[in-house]
User: What shape does this take?
Amino acid sequence: MTGQLAFVESPVQLLNVLEWAHTRAVATGASTAAQAGPPPGEPGPAPAVRAPRPTDATTPGTAPAAAPGPTVVVLSPTDPMSRGQLRRMAQLARDEGLTVHWQEARGGRGALARTLRELAGPLRAAERVIIGDPFSRYVQLLLTLFAPRHLTVVDDGTATMEFAAQLGRGERLVRWHRKGSLGPRELLLAPVTSLARRRLAPAGSRTVEIFTSLPVEAPEGVTVTGNSFAWTRSRFGPPLLTGGADLVGTSLVETGVVDAVHYDRVVGELARAHGATRYFAHRRESAEKLHRIAVGTGLQVVRPDLPLELIARRGPIGRTVVSFPSTVVHTLPLALAGTGVKVAVCEIAPEWLRETASPRARGFLSGVAGTAAQEVDRLTSRATGPADRLEFG
Assistant: This one.
């Protein structure tokens, strides 16, 4: 085996690469920092495995080197919130003995060619490639150029559910919140997407694994491995619990799925009904929307510097966490198992959807809420004339 190479583009993807590495280490009996080390900030022995760090988040233009566990390549996004969280996650990964290579993949003219040139060797040599977003055009392009021997897909939100379903049905890969018609850009990239979809499916000697905390039905020939957030629970917490509730924001407005007026109003109703004091913002939420929420509801808007699973596990966190349909209604009950925190999901009413929402949006969001763990409360909306009201149960 010549190594494992992970490509990540978001903080959650990197978190789940850490969870995957921890799960593999436990299964094989390997000694890792995640098993041997104490929670951050507590005294204890040094990590059992510490990779050399010739390539890190500040070392540009150097191809990743071999290291214990997967070598992580961060295909850096451009938005500041994602970059900040990724840098924090990159340091956590190094603390666990992984090598992290920061690639300015979107850094202006020539970035794509430079990235492909620097990663060509490691990609050809990698025995296993780990990706977090099979819908990413960047990742799809890499897969068309270098077919992996073994492939693992880790969670990057609820898109994992749609990926598994589309792969099983033999459909082209389209994000659930996008309309089905092909625009000029999609038509231009259609050959790339088509070839990438074949590279994401098991064939011949290539194996495909989905590592997920979400309820997915395994496509034929694909192995599904459950993510219990064991690394997160071993390294952080248990958290101090506060009174009242915390709300979790989503980017459903920014992606054109939910109407902003409805969203702002329901956030206020949820805050009043549950005595919430804080609103944990999604990293893609706009500053204008967050300002409206803070002014209109009095909630303290928190911009987390790490994925919410880690923030909640570190604490302090409310005794109730309320979210719209998103990955956290599946991940938080796992990360917070045994802490006494209650998670609730507010379902999306049809009248909240915008005209720009894809035809699949309503069914997909209902599926996300409906498949949440049994211990997750459902908060349903009911129309009452010109206005809606929320019923909490």
Q: What stands out?
A: Confidence is low (pLDDT under 50) at residues 31-67, 382-393. The longest strand covers residues 241-248.
